[in-house]
Every structure is written in structure tokens, then in C-alpha cells.
């Protein structure tokens, strides 16, 4: 079965009408809020990792480097590690901060960050250009953290209510691609990201190492699906702003997330 994207006429509706008319005003408000979250961009659950031409969900590789999903929401995330990144042994950030608005001057280290580097991100030297170990960037990455539902887990409204949420980090070099996509949904379709099916593709890029592309697959118009998705997205910030687990506390991916193996495009 495929995820439902079209709705039958509402009970009592005239022939030719649709069940989604009442959603137009809601979409406008949600789209406005979505745009506000990323207005300053110039450029918890199962973990999704974007690699150089590949994507993994809970440690399981997704064939083709493409993933169909529903983006419930996102937040800005600053993250710093004292040690250089090791792809064979990735570690949670030593200092990190969250905000619903990218570039929020009120961002400050999370209370559970192991090694907070300053009282606020705005005054932290790690959040200044030229502090990166390599290159001219920042030692602290200004990322976005997404909360997603895999489209294969959401064939109907009941599935949406129980599907496990996955989280994914969008790097500073790819935030601009996320913003371009959300702007397209807002300007051309008047939709927030959770009312559409999105394909995320990861490519090996010689300049930035990893390039992400966000593509609209379909708009969701099924009334029951939209109602269920609206309810799930209302609490998504609890997931995307959840503190990181220390490496010793995290479950082993193979045991917990083997069920995701092979999941990608339908």
C-alpha cells in the first residue's frame, strides 16, 4: 500500500468539492511559523545519518541514498565537539544548544551539555568564523535538527499516530537547501513541511563532502492523515530538542533498529 495523498469529498459536500478546504487557513498559519523559524538563514528518536552519497536509518543503510519521509518539524542546533570527528566512532556533542528560530541570539548551552563553552552562543568564541580545526568556518556547527516520519511507516492516519519519529542533522552547508525547499512549499503550495511527502537525497560533493537535496514527492490531502499529522507535529519540538545521550547510554543500533534495513523509496 502507498501513503494516501488524496481525499474523498467530505460527508455532505457538493459534488466536485474537496475535504481539505478548511485546511487552507491552518496551512497559512503553519507555513508562516515555518518561515519564521528559518528567516535568518543565509545559507530524541531513531537517528538518521547523511553520508557521502548514502543515508542510514538507525545504522541500517538505505539503498540509493534517497529517503522518502514527512518532515514534522525542525529546530536550530549548535553543536561542538572537543575532538575531531571520527566517522567510525561518532560521539554526541560536548556542548550544544537548541532554538526554534535559526540565529536566535538567546541560544545558550543546554543544561545537560557535558562541557558548556559559554553562557550564551552569541558570545562563545567557538561560534566565530575562523575557529574551525580545518578551513575558515566555525568550531561550533550551526545546524538544523529535523524530526521525521518515514513515509513507509505512514500508510494511513492510524500509522501516523504510532509511527516512530526519527531525527536527523542538517549541516551548515545544507541548511540553505532546506530553507530553499521550505520556501518553495510555502510560496508555491502554501504548505508546511508536515503536509507533504519529501524525498531527501544525499550526494558526495567534492567541495562540501555531503550535499543534501530536498524534493517534493506529493502533497498530502487526505483529511484523516492531515488531522493525525497536525497532532504529531504539535509536540515535535519535545523530540528535536531532546538532550543527547552520552555514548555509553545509547542503545546499540543493530539490536534496536534492524527493522529499518532496506527502507527507502517505495
What do these coordinates show?
Helix content is 23%, strand content 25%. The longest helix is centred in the C-terminal third of the chain and has 18 residues. Strands 1, 2, 3, 4, 5, 6, 7, 8 and 9 form a nine-stranded mixed β-sheet that branches. The chain contains six helices and nine strands, in the order αββββββαβαββααα. Strand 1 and strand 2 form a beta hairpin. It has one domain.
Question: Which descriptors would you attach to this protein?
Answer:
266 residues, alpha+beta, 9 strands, 23% helix, disordered C terminus
Helix content: 10-25%
- Beta content: 25-35%
- State the total count of DSSP E strands: 9
**What pattern of helices and strands is seen along the backbone?**
HEEEEEEHEHEEHHH
Any idea what the shape is?
A: globular
Largest sheet: 9 strands, mixed
Question: Which whole number gives the mean pLDDT?
Answer: 79
Alpha carbon gap, first and last residue: 9 Å
* Low-confidence region ranges: 6-18, 37-44, 253-266
Helix run count: 6
Structural domain count: 1
In short:
This protein has 6 helices and 9 strands. By secondary structure, it is an alpha+beta fold.
Write the layout of secondary structure elements.
Elements (H helix, E strand, L loop, with lengths): L22 H15 L8 E5 L4 E3 L2 E3 L3 E15 L14 E5 L41 E10 L6 H6 L3 E5 L1 H18 L6 E10 L3 E11 L3 H11 L2 H5 L12 H5 L9
Parallel strand pairs: 1-7
Antiparallel strand pairs: 1-2, 2-3, 4-5, 4-6, 4-8, 6-7, 8-9
Helix pairs in contact: 1-3
Amino acid at each position: 500500500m502507498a501513503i494516501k495523498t488524496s481525499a474523498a469529498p467530505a460527508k455532505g459536500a457538493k459534488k466536485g468539492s474537496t475535504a481539505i478546504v478548511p485546511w487552507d487557513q491552518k496551512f497559512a498559519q503553519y507555513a508562516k511559523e515555518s518561515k519564521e523559524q528559518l528567516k535568518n538563514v543565509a545559507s530524541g528518536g531513531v537517528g538518521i545519518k547523511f553520508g557521502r552519497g548514502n543515508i542510514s536509518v538507525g545504522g541500517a543503510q538505505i539503498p540509493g541514498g534517497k529517503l522518502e519521509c514527512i518532515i514534522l518539524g525542525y529546530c536550530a542546533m549548535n553543536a561542538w565537539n572537543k575532538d575531531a570527528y571520527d566517522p567510525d566512532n561518532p560521539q554526541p556533542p560536548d556542548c550544544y544548544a537548541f532554538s526554534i528560530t535559526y540565529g536566535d541570539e538567546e541560544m545558550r548551552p543546554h543544561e545537560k551539555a557535558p562541557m558548556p563553552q559559554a553562557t550564551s552562543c552569541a558570545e562563545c568564541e567557538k561560534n566565530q568564523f575562523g575557529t574551525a580545526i580545518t578551513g575558515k568556518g566555525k568550531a561550533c556547527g550551526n545546524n538544523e535538527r529535523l524530526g521525521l516520519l518515514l513515509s513507509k511507516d505512514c500508510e494511513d492516519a492510524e500509522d501516523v499516530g504510532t509511527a516512530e519519529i526519527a531525527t536527523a542533522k542538517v549541516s551548515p552547508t545544507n541548511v540553505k537547501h532546506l530553507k530553499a525547499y521550505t520556501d518553495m512549499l510555502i510560496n508555491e503550495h502554501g504548505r508546511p513541511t508536515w503536509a507533504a511527502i519529501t524525498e531527501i537525497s544525499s550526494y558526495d560533493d567534492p567541495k562540501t563532502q555531503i550535499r543534501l537535496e530536498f524534493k517534493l514527492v506529493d502533497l498530502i490531502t487526505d483529511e484523516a492523515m492531515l488531522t493525525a499529522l497536525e497532532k504529531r507535529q504539535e509536540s515535535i519540538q519535545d523530540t528535536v530538542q531532546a538532550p543527547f545521550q552520552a555514548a555509553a547510554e545509547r542503545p546499540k543500533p543493530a539490536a534496536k533498529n534492524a527493522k529499518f534495513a532496506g527502507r527507502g523509496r517505495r
